[in-house]
Structures are given as structure tokens and as C-alpha cells.
Amino acid sequence: MSRLILSRRTLIRGSAAGAGSLMLSGCDKLFENPTFRHTLEGAEDLHKITQRALGRHALAREFTEADMSPRFRANGSREVADPVYRQHLAQHFAQWSLRVEGLVEKPLTLPLDMLKSMPQRTQITRHDCVEGWSAIGKWTGPRLGPILNIAGLKPQAKYIVFHCADLYHGRPYYESIDLVDAFHPQTILAWAMNGKPLEQAHGAPLRLRVERQLGYKHAKFVTRIEAVSSLDGIYGGKGGYWEDNGTYAWYAGI
């Protein structure tokens, strides 16, 4: 079974390497390459077989501090231009808060200090990017599931949408997951990376870690979480920035 998991990663990395210099231009140019797109579609079929065999409740592999990568690359947005975000950044997020709303019984406003005071989970995991690189880092933050339990999901809620502070190529960045991943024990709202508060390039003050999915699902700069019954009508309607604007699959399980 491990061969199936490794095969998908190998397919992605191999196709990215075959794209050559396109790697240097990031995801936009990479996905214009037909070879890479065809390979990723094949990898998507492979991972569906793997997920059916393993089940989506299985844990992603966790590592030791000795395994941590000396450099963890930051990609996507590295800075946020929004004036409100810039003000919070200058104040070290002392007045910043996360909103939890939508199909919930009790909408929440959670200051960063409150999120830090909740029971924390620390996990050392591997981040796998569709561009073909991986890195191992340590993440700390509260689990998403208990936060959703505090808010009280309404029966109609099927998806959790993560709204972010950044614009990418002029469009709002967002992502979404279903309730299986939302309540997975390794799905956390990370405020620390490698034992230190997140830097701006890595999504300060809060980013999603959904460890059994590829890197583009790990939304950075999360400011608002919304429980919804459908993804229709939310931006492009496909559940995420790259899903709306590229050929990325909504479910990016590894």
C-alpha cells in the first residue's frame, strides 16, 4: 500500500522535473504545461484508489525534530498588502481575531491569545507541493474540530471555507474542506512553525494545516472560517483559488 502513496508523489515530482524551467515560475506556468497537467490527472486517479483502500481517517506520517528540513520554502503570497492586515502585523496581531460564522449556532470571534490558550497540538509533518518539492516542519495550534464544536455546526453544514487576507493575482485567496477533514485529528489552525510564531511569508498569524492534502489546500493568512452547505456561489464555485483558476482538484489527498 505504501507504494501507491509514494507513486503519486513520484508522479508529481517527476512531471514537475520534466517541466524544467517552468518550476522557477511557480504554479501558474507549471499548469500551462500539458505534460504536467496530464500527469497530475493520472496522479489524481491513483490517489482516489489509495484513499478508498486506506480510508480518509488514517493519520499522515509524523516525523522527529531530527528530520526537520533546514529550509522550508514559502510559496504563494509572501506578503499581504491589505491595510487592515498591515496594521495588525505592525501590532504583532495583539488586536487580531478569527471569525467563525456561517451555518453555526454560535458565531465566534476568537482573539489570537484565546486560540493559543486552547488545547494545542504539535505535529511534525511533510508538506508536499504540486510544484514537486517537499519539506518537513513542526506546526503548533488548536485542532479545528473542537473549535467547530464550540460554534455548533448546523445540520445543513457540509463544508468549511477558509477566507484569507491576501489577494493572489488580484483575486481573493480561499480554500475549503469537507467535515471529514475538518474533524481529522491532524487538521489544526497553526500559529507557530518550528517553535516560533508564524512569519508573514508562512501565513501569519494563522494558517490551516490539513496534513493529508497537498500544499495548496493549506490556506495562509486565515481571517474568517465559514460553514456552508454548498460551494456554489462562493467565488468561482469550485472550492478554492486554484480550483477556480486552474486545473487543481478540489480534493488533493496524499
From TrEMBL:
Organism domain of life: Bacteria
InterPro entries reported for this sequence: OxRdtase_Mopterin-bd_dom (IPR000572), OxRdtase_Mopterin-bd_sf (IPR036374), TAT_signal (IPR006311)
Ranges where the Oxidoreductase molybdopterin-binding domain occurs: 93-228
Pfam families listed in its UniProt record: Oxidored_molyb (PF00174)
Protein name: Molybdopterin-dependent oxidoreductase
Species: Novosphingobium beihaiensis
